[in-house]
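Everyone, carefully examine this protein record:
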Amino acid sequence: MTLKQYCEQNNLDENKVFDMVLGEGGGILPTVTAFTGYIAEIKDDCLVCTNDKLNVFQKEIPFSSFQRAEFGIGSGNLWLQCIVDGKSFVFCSPRKSWKSPAAKLLLEKIGEKTEILSMKEYDQFTGKLFFIYMFK
C-alpha cells in the first residue's frame, strides 16, 4: 500500500504521515528483510507504525522513549539512527520524504525529547547542492 492510499483509506493528512524504511528495528518493530517498509502516522505523543504485509497494524512508539537521535549517510541514503528504550532503531526514507512537511514534523517531535545530532547531514541531503555533496 502506498502512502497516498494509506492516507486516503484512513482519512489522514499526508503532512502527518511519513514513509520509512527500517534498517534496524531493535525489537521495537519487526523486520523481515534488511530493509522493511513502514508507514508512520505522526501524532502529538507518538508514531503509529503500520506494515500491512507483516500484519503490523498501529504499533505505537512514544516520542518520550527516544533517548538519542543522530543523522548519518550510508549507501547514498540519509539515516536517522536512534536509541529508543535502550535499543537501536534506525530508518531512512527517500529524499523527497525527508523534504516533506511530515519529516519536519517528525524531527520536531523527536527534537522535543532529545537533541538530534548531525543536523548538518540532513541539511546537506535535503539542500539544493545535494548532488555535489553526495559525490564529495
The domain at 3-134 is CATH 2.30.29.30 (PH-domain like). Strands lie at 17-24, 36-42, 46-51, 56-62, 66-74, 77-84, 87-92, 116-117. The radius of gyration is 14 Å.
